[in-house]
Amino acid sequence: MTFRVTILGSSSALPTVRKHPSAHALNVHEQFFLIDCGEGTQTQLRRYGVSPLRVNCVFLTHLHGDHVFGLFGLISTLGLLGRRTPLQVFAPHSAEAMLRSHLQYFDAELPYELQVTEVDTCKHRLIYENKTLEVWTVPLRHRVPTAGYLFREKTPPRNIRKELIPAYGLSLAQIQAAKQGRDITLSDGTLVPNAVLTYRPYVPRSYAYLSDTAYSAKAAGLVAGTDLLYHEATFMDADRRLARQTGHSTALQAARAALAAGAGRLLIGHFSSRYKDDAVLVDEARTVFPAADAATEGDTWDIRPRADDTMPASEAVSLIGRP
Amino acid sequence: MTFRVTILGSSSALPTVRKHPSAHALNVHEQFFLIDCGEGTQTQLRRYGVSPLRVNCVFLTHLHGDHVFGLFGLISTLGLLGRRTPLQVFAPHSAEAMLRSHLQYFDAELPYELQVTEVDTCKHRLIYENKTLEVWTVPLRHRVPTAGYLFREKTPPRNIRKELIPAYGLSLAQIQAAKQGRDITLSDGTLVPNAVLTYRPYVPRSYAYLSDTAYSAKAAGLVAGTDLLYHEATFMDADRRLARQTGHSTALQAARAALAAGAGRLLIGHFSSRYKDDAVLVDEARTVFPAADAATEGDTWDIRPRADDTMPASEAVSLIGRP
Q1: Do A73 and B39 touch (CB under 8 A)?
Q2: Residue B299 annotated to the active site
Q3: ipTM exceeds 0.85, yes or no
Q4: Which one of A11, A287, B174, B318 is separated from A55 by 20 to 30 angstroms, measured CA to CA?
Q5: C-alpha dihedral over B163, B164, B166, B168, to 10 degrees?
């Protein structure tokens, strides 16, 4: 029942010795998803304990090099490691032609299938689902077509309140029906509402990744209620003109997005290399949204399952690993 | 008068947390040359004190990802840093089409010119020269067209023996003529041979980079007398069948190449990740060629100028930096 994200890289376009470009690894129920794939991601996966072979899907937000250039090495390495399972890549338009062109020079004979799905960066759409997870695109405002992604746990099947099975003398068929959400009519004709018989085992969790983007109230609305929001914050608010010109956000704007979304916690990153200390950006964000932190390379943030909404989402999200 | 090489990466195709893929930075008289450019090279340049902007030319041995995938990020970063000077890239056939295709997706509007020169991997040719340096291709034997590179200092102009100027009463014109290699006739008709008046300030230095390749006696011959030879050694000699199948060398074969070339010193690298300890490969090489070392990431090897051939090349080459 894991739901956690590991920051593999969070620099902006110019990587430094201490900071790799964008890449986050998301573990949902031991299924691994990669969000963005800047240069060096394959090594960062290994460094932080995720086997590259375990990556199910890659979600690229946009075709800028600092979000993409690690994919070439990862694709090759998976071939050398003998992967057979298809690798799904979700990315904006041109990704397929770009990758096919690339492959013809480098990896014409991969032992696995590379399945590229181009996403519509103007629409909020369900683009991927498995048994427990849905992934939705979130239109963003950047210089090139860009999609954020919302990773949302599906509503789990309801659990039966075990103590009520003997009390009502429920049959196996009635138990199954109740788990599927149906009300139950007992042999004496009494109707027992489903809400009495069952409970939701946990509140579905979610993680939203919004980068790169200028401030977008619409995007914040689309990820409303997310437990953990990653929002880019390339600039300080004093440089908001520069942010607007380049299609980026300031730390203050990222915090406003978190506030508008009613997020549990906020991570900010993609800081311009002009700022020598991440703390100034975090401090700025906290003036508006106190539960803000820097997306620091190597950190793992965990979202614990909550039985119900009485526990605030902010308390369910915690930093569980720092190298 | 610097002539030194810094190892930026030396892993084989599967990089690890401790080892980056192939890339060497060569500094010849404060002109910087990059040989191969595996993923992460731009960061490795910074880590080891070479500004990416100072790279004059890039020499790619072959179009396998572990020798190339860092070029995409480097090209982008140089654009972001506002480079105006053209960047020359020397590489085997297909490099130009591959890079042009790549650029149309990522860096269509670079502020500098990318000049791609495709080299003939079957010929030993002078492909680049400046005031002090020549670069020659060395045909190699790999699974795809591959060129090694020989970096050779040009013969410097001869220096005049200052003490002879008053002794022979040389005029300024006579001094200039002597520096250009001519004999001098004094006013009394005496002929003074140039070899008496002048001396070679130093023996031209050279660095040869042979990777990836199966053992090639021809390649060893083409780099005969090189002060420092980097030769790939992907396998131990016990695995020489695997080496042959994959177009690679063993540590023993690399040592034999150094011996055949009469190299001053040997660096070996590109070790398969199957070997957990570089020392076993170095030990194997030393059984045949004692002046052998591992090409260890971050190491800088310096070749000091030698006044004449009485000092063995092996003594002029030394490790001057290890992080």
Answers
A1: yes
A2: no
A3: yes
A4: A11
A5: 170
Confidence of residue B322 (pLDDT cuts 50, 70, 90): confident
* Interchain contact, A76 vs B63, CB within 8 Å: no
Which residue of B lies nearest to A108 if distances are taken between CA atoms?
B64
**pLDDT over 90 percentage in chain A:** 90
> Rounded distance, CA B179 to CA B160, Å?
6
pLDDT tens digits for B133-172? 999 999 999 999 999 999 999 998 889 999 999 999 999 9
Comparing CB atoms, the residue among B40, B47, B97 nearest residue A39 is B40
The HSE-up count of residue B142 (CA atoms within 13 Å, CB side) is 22
**Residues facing A209 on adjacent strands:** A149, A230
- Does pLDDT of B199 surpass 80? yes
User: Residue B72 in contact with residue B106, Cβ under 8 Å?
Assistant: yes
Alpha helical stretches, state H, A155-216: 164-168, 172-179, 194-197
Chain A to chain B, count of Cβ pairs less than 8 Å apart?
94
Question: Could you report the per-residue pLDDT of A229-284, keeping only the tens digit for each?
Answer: 999 999 999 999 999 999 999 999 999 999 999 999 999 999 999 999 999 999 99
pLDDT at A323 over 80: no
Task: Give chain B's contact residues with A (Cβ, < 8 Å).
Answer: 13-17, 20-21, 39-40, 42-43, 46-47, 63-66, 68-70, 72-73, 76-77, 80-81, 94, 97-98, 101-102, 105-107
Beta bridge partners of A268: A231, A294
Closest-CA residue to A9 (of A66, A51, A56, A50): A66
The domain locations on chain A are: 3-156+200-321, 159-198
CB atoms within 10 A of CB B66: 26
What residues have CB less than 8 Å from A263, skipping those under 6 apart? Answer: A208, A223, A225, A226, A227, A228, A229, A289, A291, A313
Of the candidates A39, A42, A102, which has its C-beta nearest B73's C-beta? A39
On the question of pLDDT at A28 being above 90, the answer is yes
Q: Cβ contacts (< 8 Å) between B40 and chain A: which residues? A: 39-40, 43
C-alpha gyration radius of chain A: 22
Reported as a pLDDT band with limits 50, 70 and 90, residue B200 is confident
Cβ contact B65–A107 (<8 Å): yes
Quick check: B81 and B53 in contact, CB under 8 A?
yes
CB contact under 8 A, B73 and A47: no
β-bridge pairing A317-321 and A300-303? antiparallel
| Chain A residues close to B72, C-beta within 8 Å | 39, 65, 69, 72
Question: Given pLDDT bands bounded at 50, 70 and 90, which one contains residue A132?
Answer: very high
For position A280, what pLDDT does the model report? 97
Question: Is there a contact between A301 and A8 (Cβ–Cβ < 8 Å)?
Answer: no
User: Is B14's CB within 8 Å of A81's CB?
Assistant: yes
Domain B3-156+200-321 adopts which CATH fold? Metallo-beta-lactamase; Chain A (3.60.15)
List, in order, residues 6 or more apart from A206 with CB less than 8 Å away.
Answer: A150, A151, A152, A153, A223, A225, A226, A227, A228
| Chain B residues in contact with A39 (beta carbon < 8 A) | 39-40, 42-43, 69-70, 72-73
Please give the Cα distance from B154 to A201 (Å, whole number).
77
pLDDT at position A85: 97
